[in-house]
Amino acid sequence: MRITLTIRKHFHRVNRPEAVRSPLILLKAETATLQSGNFPCYLPVNKIPDNQRIDSSKLMNNIKYHQGDWASRSAMEVARSHAPTATYNGKIYVFGGGGPDFKSLNSTTIYDPATNSWTAGSEMPTLRSGAIATTVGDAIYIIGGGFKKPDGNFQFLRTTEIYHPETDSWEVGPEMLQPHDYPAGALFDNHIYILGGHHPDATLSGPKTDPGFDFCERLNL
After folding, report:
1. Contact call for residues 34 and 41 (beta carbons, < 8 A)
2. At 52, is the secondary structure helix, strand, or coil?
3. What does the pLDDT read at residue 192?
4. CB–CB of 158/174 below 8 Å?
5. What ranges make up the beta strands (E) of the chain?
6. Residue 206: its pLDDT value, please?
7. Which residues contact 133 (CB under 8 A, 6 or more apart)?
8. Strands 139-143, 146-148: parallel, antiparallel or unpaired by DSSP?
């Protein structure tokens, strides 16, 4: 395994999103109500022509679902959960995850759909599960996550490690401002956004007593 210690970029905090889940627009005469999982938000629609308003009751009926079939593929050598995945050059890369007894792994496992086979890549420098993985050009960024310690408590990470598939090598990236375990992540406009995740203080029992985390940050690439 080859590790190159190079830190060129930094994370920055961004404003947290409103806690809106499964939005449903209910149209009234003068306002539209956006019903969320936590609270309603009111949006003025009195200036929207009637022919441009959305009837949410008919919206789901117009969605076309793909009627495909599931097929079994070659199984992984080691069962795991909470493993970040990414694609590069026609292959699927799986990094770490929680293995047997939820002991965190640091493996790099590569699936080739063309041959329906798995191969091993260079191991991650850090044991972890619950990270996010995103492909940026010829590199794959593995960010955050955590691991279960021998005493049963959890350790959440600010760690960023960058995998280079072409050379099967790792580079250490900049640490996040806060630890994020199992966050949401997105690549947008030359930034990697890390949003929420398990609360950093929920280390005793893990997700069982987790109040959630609203801290958001981004890596400027």
Report:
1. yes
2. helix
3. 97
4. no
5. 3-5, 11-14, 24-27, 31-35, 40-44, 85-88, 91-98, 104-112, 117-121, 132-136, 139-143, 146-148, 154-156, 160-164, 169-172, 184-188, 191-195, 216-220
6. 57
7. 84, 85, 86, 93, 95, 140, 141, 142, 143
8. unpaired
Cα 159 from Cα 143, distance rounded (Å): 6
Residue 158 identity? R
Cα 67 to Cα 107: distance, rounded to the nearest angstrom:
34
Query: Where do we find the tokens 């072409």?
Result: 166
pLDDT for 30 beyond 60: no
CA–CA gap between residue 87 and residue 54 (Å, rounded): 36
Q: Whole-angstrom Cα distance, residue 195 to residue 144?
A: 11
Query: How do residues 123-170 score in pLDDT, each as one tens digit?
Result: 999 999 999 999 999 999 999 999 998 888 899 999 999 999 999 999
pLDDT band at 174 (very low <50, low <70, confident <90, very high): very high
The Cα–Cα gap between 76 and 118 comes to 7
pTM value is: 0.74
**CA 149 from centre of chain:** 22
Name the average pLDDT for the chain: 81
